[in-house]
Amino acid sequence: MSDSQTDTPSDLSPLLIHLLKGVLYRDQQETLWQALMTLQGRVRDYVAVLGLELALDETEGYAYLRQVTGGEEDSGVPRLVPRRQLSYPVSLLLALLRKKLAEHDASGEHPRLILTQQQIVELVRLFLPDTANEAKLVDRVQGDINKVIELGFLRRLRGQHDRYEVRRILQSFVDAQWLGEFEQRLQEYREHADAK
């Protein structure tokens, strides 16, 4: 694919900088998205030198850079994109949101999955120790929600402090295989808890 002669490094720079900082969403950065559609080949070539690859989902409207995995961790090339260790509650929340997104997609309803804070608390409640202090539970889950927002998998709706959109990029990070393995571990946790 060849880009037009009018494309200059100044067209590529803002796009690369945005991608190096995080996820590019079509609905939030239309101008940069159009630049990506035009300069996709050059972006891929440029980031490959850094040991990165462009992950692009045109249907869902997001793009981001990820570390190329060559199989060996000690290949001599340092990681540009750091790995993040997630706590159990945050991993649990991500898995439950991914499962809810899959169920929502299967139902064929509205394309956006919007959940309230209370709906998210109810999703997580089954996997947390019973507590008589409802406010403490809500605060704990809200802390996990804030972390998931920071990671970019949830977005607080403008003007509605307790309603959240589950971002479709979650499908890219929590794939069906990971979700299946996590589901198996959750079942083991349930069985272990029931045995006590």
Q: How would you describe this protein?
A:
- With 196 residues, the chain is α+β, with helices and mostly antiparallel strands.
- It has 7 helices and 6 strands; from the N terminus they run αβαββαβααββαα.
- Strand 5 (154-156) and strand 6 form a beta hairpin.
- Helix 1 (9-21) crosses helix 2 (30-49).
Task: Provide key terms for this protein.
196 residues; alpha+beta; Arc Repressor Mutant, subunit A; 2 domains; 7 helices; 6 strands; JetB; DUF4194 domain-containing protein
Can you identify the CATH class of the largest domain?
A: Mainly Alpha
Average pLDDT figure: 82
N/C terminus separation: 61 Å
β-strand number: 6
Which fold does the CATH topology of the largest domain refer to?
A: Arc Repressor Mutant, subunit A
CATH 2nd-level architecture of the largest domain: Orthogonal Bundle
**Structural domain count:** 2
Radius of gyration: 20 Å
* Structural classification: alpha+beta
Q: What order do the SSEs take from the amino end to the carboxyl end, as H and E?
A: HEHEEHEHHEEHH
Q: Which percent range fits the helix content?
A: 40-55%
Low-confidence stretches: 1-6
Say which CATH homologous superfamily of the largest domain is assigned. Winged helix-like DNA-binding domain superfamily/Winged helix DNA-binding domain
Tell me the β content: 5-15%
Placed side by side, the strands forming the largest sheet appear as 1-3-2
Organism: Kushneria aurantia
InterPro entries: JetB (IPR025449)
Protein name: DUF4194 domain-containing protein
